[in-house]
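Feature request disguised as a bug report, sorry. It would help if multi-protein outputs had a clear separator. Right now it looks like this:
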Amino acid sequence: MSTLSTSIFMSDSKFYVYSKDGCGFCEKLTNFMESKGVNYEKFDLGTDFSPEEFLYKFGRQSTFPQVIVENKHIGGMKDTVRFLLDNKMV
């Protein structure tokens, strides 16, 4: 696969952001993603998933937000921004 087609494929990827109300990092990340045109869907604690589901999916030490793309757990805000930059998606 050429670099160009890999870039196109990755830029079409949808990110899944698990967040909660009042989370400054969650808001900063989604604002950044929106400003850069990153395709994402946000899920909110208490509405879209329970605390137990969050712990089961990400583990006890996980903080908000947590991000998944293409069934791969990216991590929190800094990890996600780094992933986007490293993969030349923004």
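(second protein starts here, but nothing in the output says so)
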Amino acid sequence: MSSERSGGGPQSSGYQSGLFVFTDSQFVLLRDLILERTGMLFDDAKRGLLSDKLSELVAANAMTSFLDYYYLLRYDDAADAHWGALLDRLSVPETYFWRQAEQILALSEVIAPSHAAINPGKRLRIWCAACCTGEEPLSLAIALAEAGLLGTGLIDIYATDASSAMVARARSGRYGERSFRQIPANLREKYFEPDGALWRPIKQVREAVHYDVVNLVRKEQVAPYARADVIFCRNVFIYFSDAVIKRVVQSFIEQMAPDGCLFLGAAESLTRLGVELDLAEVGGAFAYVRPGNRPYFERPPSNVPIAPAARRLQDGSWPG
């Protein structure tokens, strides 16, 4: 085992975090390995952040340097378990109900009813690819319940995250006040019940979502879930390099339904990356679709009305 602790010697130069020194070579090794395995990019500006996040894991494994930890992740027989712990540490659990409501309503008020009208009896598969603690997929379930579509037995909602800790929290389904800062009060009262000092979704909403652990850079893990009609992959590409984003999106394209669509976060865009998807408007929101394809939901059938909630969003009175 190496012994590159702070406090002297030619190898002690670098960023110091607690007991450990993050030398230039150690940073490059771990940065590149993390990028390869997770898609997350820690550039020079985030060196201190990465050091802080890894220091506790180095100490928890009774190691004396970041180099020891690199060898653990790279070569140890139990590396998979350690990668799980690392992903839990690197995750950023910042989300809330009803985030980017226009996309949620595009699903419930345009895509889902159009799909049902044009493909009677065909299941609608929805995948939340970076679900964090579960607020996003539960928001979709609530919106679909409000549209009268959740109980049809023809909608599947899958939610995954690379962090097993985040998925465990999502499965537990208990939320504090910060998670409710955007959702209309009437929906909170209707679809949640008190659980001590927290709130829990009602059974219909809770059981509508199926959770799993999926690393988006692992193509074999992505494939079964990417066979979806609608993919929500919001606010995760901001942590990825361009090359990784293109690789992940390609794995979506290879499996996604012919008329499928991909929703990204407000700060994310694929237009400059040259991927084989076009930007399209769907019910007042923007999504990515296959080139040259005009999805059926882009112009809903005449017998599919725009629900009042969507109209309120369009005229600026949502939520209300």
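Even a blank line would do. Unrelated, but nice: The radius of gyration is 22 Å.
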